[in-house]
């Protein structure tokens, strides 16, 4: 599966834009050019809006009133447009579990439409930082642990957004995979880890046409990313040939004016480092004038290229915000993201047999769509699990109690035919690390408005459920009734402590505004679960890489997730790509051959069950690993197929040999030899063959 890309601009259009850019630059003073290189007015706007993030578009660079040039007007993501009362989709990790790039493209288009309808032309919704460890607080904002999967899904999202002439930015560049220490941590990574694990998904998105890059707060190999010449010039510009613009994350994304020379084009959200300091640096010869011209040329070329494109829609009215079509899209995503982890046959539940259902847990009745930081979306409504089930079964058929009163919970279970326990987390336990309503510097006082000292979110302290929820699951099990546990979280949750008390376990994630409706449909078989885990769930927390949420320095190597466990011969509890169905599937006829510069793979998959169902077929490749140690296998393709009972489909993949190269010094090398080819329903359940390269 390859990501969609936007059509290239015609030579005539490029020449017209280039001429227009040069004409604008010729009329600008140095101060006007430097003004384009930062956001403006954010702190004042935030105070006026009572610290509500996203209450208005934020000026995030560009703009010149004298010349009639509009600024970049920014809105964040990635659960939806963070303005007004927008559609709230399932969190990015949940959408990663769909393994459906076409769906992500359509969600991107919806976000682009709603951004346009709310006066924005610049979106921060494409978050593709790699999930190195499940404790990462903002795991929910990305797609998973695999670079290939991240690249395909992120490119689809960004392409969808840009279809409606909104500039998309891909974030956070780079190696941003921890939250509490993000403003100080120095991430050490060698050449192979950088280019084989932590950067390829960014290149994938930029090759697909995503037009902007947001830097991250952390350091990489001793330098802050917002002023790192290696990342911003040597890699982005010289090696990858990226032509768009680069901007900082919000506040403390750059510390020195040499960030401009290193390749940072815009400091957001205010000129705390650039601005007058940058003007002075140019005047005193510390920064070359061409650096400012270069940044403005990148900004203007990108902006005017988008502005000159024809819009797909005749108008972008307010009626398009959270419209029926977008709500239906949110429901489709919520249906497809649910991952059935275990099932002893109790699911799907039967309406005829379940006259009373006990729905237990505080989270069952809570509007809980995820992080309350920069990704927060305020939709017109949210369907909770309890509301979704009562809408389906009727008020009288659903009993509710929670962990605050175990006796009441046990009584509800005793009086019911089956029990659903909704467990997991909220924005208090995981998410953006926030002091007040918005993170502007975490544990250090920011250069901006003062914030409340009470923090929420951040990296998780542990990977298990809270003790009170475990006690609730055990109380439910003691009733002798079948127990289903639905986990609401942004990444992996350890289940060893209580899985023996559950008849079925479902990963439902932060499922967006329609999550409760989708959960009810999945539980009662109106929808067949088809999600697959975009991360590995280990049996022991020690099986994950080392993680210190307060680290000053940490090393990222080649190994995490399924590649680490396979290298060490450790069986996970649930493998990357795992997900059960109400149907069963049989794989056969795996064939692979080298054709030109690619490996062509085909495999047959048959629905051997008695219900129609979707299956996500996954293709992995294993390199010889003689010249350099390589992963046992790496994902290189996935496809969602819909099958009626007894139906067979052929899934086909074309894997470019270039994607199997390893980083040798400062270049790339394709190792000759025998390549293993895998295809199946998860990383741990595959057919295998081989080809010679």
UniProtKB/TrEMBL annotation:
> Pfam families attached here?
Fn3-like, Glyco_hydro_3, Glyco_hydro_3_C
Q: Which UniProt keywords apply?
A: Hydrolase
Extract the SUPFAM superfamilies matched here: (Trans)glycosidases, Beta-D-glucan exohydrolase, C-terminal domain
What the entry lists under InterPro entries is as follows: Cellulose_deg_GH3, Fn3-like, GH, Glyco_hydro_3_C, Glyco_hydro_3_C_sf, Glyco_hydro_3_N, Glyco_hydro_3_N_sf, Ig-like_fold
Q: Does the keyword Phosphoprotein apply?
A: no
Single annotated GO MF: hydrolase activity
Q: Where is the Fibronectin type III-like domain?
A: 615-683
Signal sequence residues: none
**Superkingdom classification of source:** Bacteria
Instruction: Give the UniProt family note.
Output: Belongs to the glycosyl hydrolase 3 family.
Kindly provide the name given to this protein in its UniProt entry. Glycoside hydrolase family 3 C-terminal domain-containing protein
Q: Which organism is it from?
A: Novosphingobium humi
Biological classification of the source: Bacteria, Pseudomonadati, Pseudomonadota, Alphaproteobacteria, Sphingomonadales
